[in-house]
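Appendix B, record 7
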Amino acid sequence: MGTLQRIKQFINYIGFTNQKFEKIVGFSNGAFSSQLRNNKTIGVDKLENILSKFPELNPEWLLTGRGHMLREKNIITGEAFSNQPPNLIPLYDGTIVTDNPAPESIYSTDAYKYINAGDWFGDATAAMRVHDNSMPQYPTGSIVAMKEVFDTTLIVYGQDYGIETSEYRIIRRLQKGKSNSNLLLSADSSERWDDGTDKGRLIHEPFSVAAENIKKLYLVLGCIKRNIII
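C-alpha coordinates (predicted):
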Protein backbone atom coordinates (compact mmCIF):
# COMPACT_ATOMS: atom_id res chain seq x y z
CA MET A 1 0.00 0.00 0.00
CA GLY A 2 1.41 3.36 -1.03
CA THR A 3 0.90 6.86 0.34
CA LEU A 4 -2.10 7.58 -1.88
CA GLN A 5 -3.79 4.37 -0.79
CA ARG A 6 -3.18 5.25 2.86
CA ILE A 7 -4.71 8.69 2.28
CA LYS A 8 -7.75 6.95 0.80
CA GLN A 9 -7.91 4.66 3.82
CA PHE A 10 -7.93 7.72 6.09
CA ILE A 11 -10.64 9.37 3.95
CA ASN A 12 -12.80 6.26 4.35
CA TYR A 13 -12.10 6.19 8.09
CA ILE A 14 -13.39 9.72 8.66
CA GLY A 15 -16.35 9.17 6.36
CA PHE A 16 -15.49 11.81 3.76
CA THR A 17 -15.93 11.61 0.00
CA ASN A 18 -12.90 12.25 -2.21
CA GLN A 19 -14.53 15.50 -3.34
CA LYS A 20 -15.03 16.77 0.19
CA PHE A 21 -11.47 15.84 1.14
CA GLU A 22 -10.12 17.67 -1.92
CA LYS A 23 -12.06 20.80 -0.99
CA ILE A 24 -10.86 20.81 2.61
CA VAL A 25 -7.17 20.35 1.78
CA GLY A 26 -7.25 22.75 -1.16
CA PHE A 27 -6.84 20.29 -4.03
CA SER A 28 -8.47 21.06 -7.35
CA ASN A 29 -11.67 19.14 -8.04
CA GLY A 30 -10.87 15.55 -8.98
CA ALA A 31 -7.12 15.93 -8.43
CA PHE A 32 -6.77 13.32 -5.69
CA SER A 33 -9.15 10.88 -7.38
CA SER A 34 -7.10 11.16 -10.57
CA GLN A 35 -3.81 10.60 -8.74
CA LEU A 36 -5.23 7.60 -6.93
CA ARG A 37 -6.70 6.11 -10.10
CA ASN A 38 -3.44 6.51 -12.03
CA ASN A 39 -1.23 5.58 -9.06
CA LYS A 40 0.78 8.78 -9.33
CA THR A 41 3.04 10.28 -6.66
CA ILE A 42 1.95 13.11 -4.41
CA GLY A 43 4.07 16.19 -3.74
CA VAL A 44 5.59 17.07 -0.38
CA ASP A 45 3.69 20.37 -0.29
CA LYS A 46 0.38 18.53 -0.63
CA LEU A 47 1.33 16.06 2.10
CA GLU A 48 2.22 18.96 4.40
CA ASN A 49 -1.14 20.55 3.68
CA ILE A 50 -2.98 17.32 4.49
CA LEU A 51 -1.13 16.99 7.80
CA SER A 52 -1.87 20.62 8.68
CA LYS A 53 -5.59 20.12 8.02
CA PHE A 54 -5.73 16.78 9.86
CA PRO A 55 -3.24 17.03 12.76
CA GLU A 56 -4.57 13.81 14.26
CA LEU A 57 -3.10 11.90 11.28
CA ASN A 58 0.19 10.15 12.08
CA PRO A 59 2.90 11.41 9.62
CA GLU A 60 5.01 8.24 9.97
CA TRP A 61 2.06 6.03 9.08
CA LEU A 62 1.13 8.29 6.17
CA LEU A 63 4.62 8.23 4.65
CA THR A 64 5.83 4.73 5.51
CA GLY A 65 2.86 2.70 6.69
CA ARG A 66 4.51 2.06 10.06
CA GLY A 67 2.58 2.53 13.28
CA HIS A 68 -1.03 3.57 13.69
CA MET A 69 -3.09 5.72 11.37
CA LEU A 70 -3.79 8.26 14.11
CA ARG A 71 -1.51 9.89 16.63
CA GLU A 72 -1.50 8.08 19.96
CA LYS A 73 -4.11 10.24 21.70
CA ASN A 74 -6.59 9.65 18.84
CA ILE A 75 -6.13 5.88 18.51
CA ILE A 76 -9.19 3.65 18.67
CA THR A 77 -8.08 0.04 19.11
CA GLY A 78 -9.39 -3.49 19.42
CA GLU A 79 -13.08 -4.31 19.13
CA ALA A 80 -14.04 -0.64 19.35
CA PHE A 81 -12.08 0.04 16.15
CA SER A 82 -13.54 -2.90 14.25
CA ASN A 83 -17.07 -1.79 15.14
CA GLN A 84 -16.65 1.84 14.08
CA PRO A 85 -19.32 2.92 11.59
CA PRO A 86 -18.19 4.63 8.38
CA ASN A 87 -19.69 8.01 9.25
CA LEU A 88 -17.40 9.30 11.98
CA ILE A 89 -17.40 13.08 12.23
CA PRO A 90 -14.90 15.48 13.81
CA LEU A 91 -15.83 16.92 17.20
CA TYR A 92 -14.47 20.37 17.96
CA ASP A 93 -14.26 21.15 21.66
CA GLY A 94 -14.90 24.72 22.68
CA THR A 95 -15.27 25.93 19.13
CA ILE A 96 -18.72 27.45 19.18
CA VAL A 97 -18.50 30.43 21.48
CA THR A 98 -21.72 32.06 20.48
CA ASP A 99 -20.66 35.65 21.08
CA ASN A 100 -16.97 36.04 21.73
CA PRO A 101 -14.09 35.99 19.22
CA ALA A 102 -12.36 32.62 19.17
CA PRO A 103 -8.58 32.22 19.09
CA GLU A 104 -7.05 30.81 15.91
CA SER A 105 -5.99 27.66 17.73
CA ILE A 106 -9.54 26.32 17.95
CA TYR A 107 -10.37 26.37 14.26
CA SER A 108 -11.19 23.47 12.01
CA THR A 109 -7.80 21.74 12.24
CA ASP A 110 -8.31 21.15 15.97
CA ALA A 111 -10.79 18.29 16.05
CA TYR A 112 -9.69 16.39 19.14
CA LYS A 113 -11.62 13.22 18.39
CA TYR A 114 -14.06 11.62 15.98
CA ILE A 115 -17.51 10.60 17.14
CA ASN A 116 -20.32 8.49 15.78
CA ALA A 117 -23.14 10.83 14.79
CA GLY A 118 -25.65 8.00 15.05
CA ASP A 119 -28.66 7.18 12.89
CA TRP A 120 -30.44 10.45 13.66
CA PHE A 121 -27.58 12.50 12.24
CA GLY A 122 -26.38 10.25 9.45
CA ASP A 123 -25.70 13.24 7.17
CA ALA A 124 -23.74 15.23 9.78
CA THR A 125 -20.21 16.24 8.82
CA ALA A 126 -19.09 17.93 12.06
CA ALA A 127 -20.04 18.42 15.69
CA MET A 128 -19.26 21.15 18.19
CA ARG A 129 -19.85 22.03 21.81
CA VAL A 130 -21.84 25.11 22.82
CA HIS A 131 -20.67 27.41 25.60
CA ASP A 132 -23.34 30.03 26.22
CA ASN A 133 -27.09 30.64 26.20
CA SER A 134 -27.63 33.03 23.30
CA MET A 135 -29.47 30.21 21.50
CA PRO A 136 -31.46 28.58 24.34
CA GLN A 137 -32.49 25.57 22.28
CA TYR A 138 -28.81 24.56 22.26
CA PRO A 139 -27.97 24.48 25.99
CA THR A 140 -24.52 25.18 27.36
CA GLY A 141 -22.46 22.00 27.20
CA SER A 142 -24.56 20.37 24.52
CA ILE A 143 -23.09 18.96 21.32
CA VAL A 144 -24.50 20.35 18.09
CA ALA A 145 -24.52 18.13 15.00
CA MET A 146 -24.08 20.02 11.74
CA LYS A 147 -23.78 19.52 8.01
CA GLU A 148 -21.37 21.66 6.01
CA VAL A 149 -22.97 23.75 3.27
CA PHE A 150 -20.79 24.17 0.20
CA ASP A 151 -23.33 25.85 -2.08
CA THR A 152 -24.52 29.10 -0.46
CA THR A 153 -27.37 29.37 -2.95
CA LEU A 154 -28.96 26.53 -0.95
CA ILE A 155 -29.16 28.57 2.27
CA VAL A 156 -32.57 28.22 3.92
CA TYR A 157 -33.26 31.54 5.60
CA GLY A 158 -34.81 31.25 9.03
CA GLN A 159 -32.79 28.12 9.86
CA ASP A 160 -29.93 27.91 12.35
CA TYR A 161 -26.36 27.71 11.09
CA GLY A 162 -22.85 27.47 12.44
CA ILE A 163 -20.93 30.34 10.86
CA GLU A 164 -17.14 30.49 10.83
CA THR A 165 -15.15 33.61 9.98
CA SER A 166 -11.48 34.43 10.57
CA GLU A 167 -12.41 35.78 14.01
CA TYR A 168 -15.05 33.51 15.49
CA ARG A 169 -17.39 30.58 15.20
CA ILE A 170 -20.99 31.31 16.11
CA ILE A 171 -24.45 29.72 16.03
CA ARG A 172 -27.15 32.02 14.72
CA ARG A 173 -30.43 32.06 12.84
CA LEU A 174 -29.62 33.18 9.33
CA GLN A 175 -31.67 35.93 7.67
CA LYS A 176 -31.28 37.95 4.49
CA GLY A 177 -29.22 41.10 4.91
CA LYS A 178 -30.00 44.54 3.55
CA SER A 179 -27.94 43.70 0.48
CA ASN A 180 -27.12 40.50 -1.38
CA SER A 181 -23.55 40.68 -0.10
CA ASN A 182 -24.55 40.59 3.59
CA LEU A 183 -26.28 38.14 5.90
CA LEU A 184 -28.12 38.97 9.12
CA LEU A 185 -27.26 36.77 12.11
CA SER A 186 -29.91 36.67 14.84
CA ALA A 187 -29.87 35.09 18.28
CA ASP A 188 -32.93 33.35 19.70
CA SER A 189 -32.49 34.75 23.20
CA SER A 190 -34.78 37.59 24.29
CA GLU A 191 -32.61 38.53 27.28
CA ARG A 192 -32.19 42.27 27.82
CA TRP A 193 -29.88 44.42 29.92
CA ASP A 194 -31.43 45.28 33.30
CA ASP A 195 -29.47 48.45 33.98
CA GLY A 196 -26.74 50.75 32.74
CA THR A 197 -26.63 52.72 29.51
CA ASP A 198 -27.83 49.67 27.56
CA LYS A 199 -30.86 49.03 29.79
CA GLY A 200 -33.67 47.49 27.78
CA ARG A 201 -31.49 46.55 24.81
CA LEU A 202 -31.07 42.96 23.72
CA ILE A 203 -27.97 41.32 25.16
CA HIS A 204 -27.50 39.29 21.98
CA GLU A 205 -28.37 41.76 19.25
CA PRO A 206 -28.61 40.73 15.59
CA PHE A 207 -25.70 41.80 13.42
CA SER A 208 -24.63 41.65 9.79
CA VAL A 209 -21.65 39.86 8.29
CA ALA A 210 -20.34 40.11 4.75
CA ALA A 211 -20.89 36.85 2.87
CA GLU A 212 -17.31 36.96 1.59
CA ASN A 213 -16.01 36.84 5.18
CA ILE A 214 -17.68 33.52 5.91
CA LYS A 215 -15.05 30.79 5.67
CA LYS A 216 -17.32 27.85 6.48
CA LEU A 217 -21.06 27.43 6.86
CA TYR A 218 -22.83 24.56 8.60
CA LEU A 219 -26.54 23.82 8.78
CA VAL A 220 -27.48 22.86 12.34
CA LEU A 221 -29.19 19.47 12.32
CA GLY A 222 -29.87 19.16 16.03
CA CYS A 223 -28.17 18.82 19.39
CA ILE A 224 -27.44 16.23 22.02
CA LYS A 225 -27.35 17.12 25.70
CA ARG A 226 -26.71 15.10 28.80
CA ASN A 227 -28.86 15.53 31.88
CA ILE A 228 -26.97 15.61 35.17
CA ILE A 229 -28.79 13.93 38.04
CA ILE A 230 -27.61 14.90 41.53
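Remarks on this record: The chain has six helices and nine strands. Confidence is low (pLDDT under 50) at residues 75-86, 94-109.
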